[in-house]
């Protein structure tokens, strides 16, 4: 999409390559023959892994049997379950226009984007947060089992959804939720630079305007949960929402709405 004249050479789709390398074993043997370092010791690494700042994925090996649970020693971005911290930890995530801008961990304020992410990766590591074991649908129609660790992003997602809850308009959120599966599909299938993605990115960016504030997220034993939040652009009003008074909202006004909504059910 960015440079249509460039010819893409993809060995895994080339007949000559496939004739020489029919699977992981052939590839690993070639790596050993040429002195290419392998990620683990032994004759064959147990899993196919893709690792980056955001996550790591594990496939193949005994994971190809969906009945086989992952081994604890497989995980690289989270500690083994037996070593997860015994005390919960709360981190505060700040947002500006829906983008994480700062993290407060035990009084230390981190605003550099890389350090912010690394900090949350460490929080998630010691609390075992971000593991996912799923059978997914590949673009080519095959079902595939994969195990993932996405530490910091799991905390950020919880915080982001929560700040949207207080600062995003209900109808905007409803449309955003309708578009989200398509957005995820385009990313998964590699259509980041397609025109439909440009359209969705513009809509998503618009939805994040004024999604500002902070969220406190408690992390503990493989889970994280938003427990407090505040926003200068909040659409929440304590006076209107309070069950102790009817200031700003008259419950009797709802009677007419319910009658209108019930007409089709009486037909």
Task: Describe the 3D structure.
With 267 residues, the chain is of the alpha+beta class. Helices cover 36% and strands 21% of the residues. It is built from eight helices and nine strands. It has helices spanning 15-20, 24-33, 113-127, 151-167, 170-188, 195-207, 238-241, 254-266, and strands at 48-51, 56-59, 89-96, 99-105, 108-110, 131-137, 143-149, 213-220, 223-230. The protein has a five-stranded antiparallel β-sheet, with helices on one face. Strands 1-2-7-6 form a four-stranded antiparallel β-sheet, with no helix packed on it. β1 (48-51) and β2 (56-59) form a beta hairpin. α3 (113-127) crosses α4 (151-167). The chain is globular and about 80 Å long. The mean pLDDT is 91.
Question: How would a textbook summarize the main sheet?
Answer: 5 strands, antiparallel
Please write the string of helix (H) and strand (E) elements.
HHEEEEEHEEHHHEEHH
Which class do the helix and strand fractions yield? Answer: alpha+beta
Q: Report the span from N to C terminus.
A: 53 Å
The global form is: globular
Strands side by side in the biggest sheet:
5-4-3-8-9
Assess the beta-strand content as a share of residues.
15-25%
- Radius of gyration (Å): 24 Å
Query: If you average the pLDDT, what whole number results?
Result: 91
Helix content: 25-40%
Low-confidence stretches at least 5 residues in length (pLDDT < 50)? Answer: none
Number of strands: 9
Number of helices: 8
Oligomeric organization of the protein chains: single chain
């Amino acid at each position: 999409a960015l440079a249509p004249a460039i010819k893409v050479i993809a060995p895994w789709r080339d007949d000559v390559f496939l004739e020489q390398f029919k699977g992981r074993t052939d590839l690993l043997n070639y790596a050993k023959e040429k002195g290419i370092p392998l990620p683990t010791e032994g004759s064959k690494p147990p899993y196919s892994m893709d690792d980056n700042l955001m996550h790591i994925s594990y496939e193949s090996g005994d994971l190809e049997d969906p009945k086989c649970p992952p081994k604890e020693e497989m995980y690289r971005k989270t500690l083994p379950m037996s070593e997860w911290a015994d005390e919960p930890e709360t981190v505060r995530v700040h947002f500006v226009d829906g983008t994480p801008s700062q993290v407060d961990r035990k009084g230390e304020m981190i605003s550099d984007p890389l350090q912010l992410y690394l900090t949350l990766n460490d929080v998630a590591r010691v609390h075992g947060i971000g593991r996912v074991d799923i059978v997914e649908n590949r673009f080519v129609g095959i079902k595939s089992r994969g195990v993932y660790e996405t530490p910091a992003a799991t905390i950020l997602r919880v915080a982001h959804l929560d700040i949207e809850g207080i600062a995003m308009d209900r109808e905007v959120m409803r449309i955003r939720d309708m578009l989200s599966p398509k957005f995820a599909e385009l990313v998964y299938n590699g259509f980041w630079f397609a025109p439909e993605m440009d359209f969705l990115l513009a809509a998503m960016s618009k939805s994040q305007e004024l999604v500002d504030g902070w969220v406190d997220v408690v992390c503990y034993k493989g889970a994280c949960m938003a427990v407090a939040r505040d926003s200068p652009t909040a659409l929440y009003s304590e006076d209107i929402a309070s069950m102790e008074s009817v200031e700003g909202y008259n419950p009797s006004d709802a009677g007419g709405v319910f009658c209108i909504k019930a007409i089709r059910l009486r037909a």
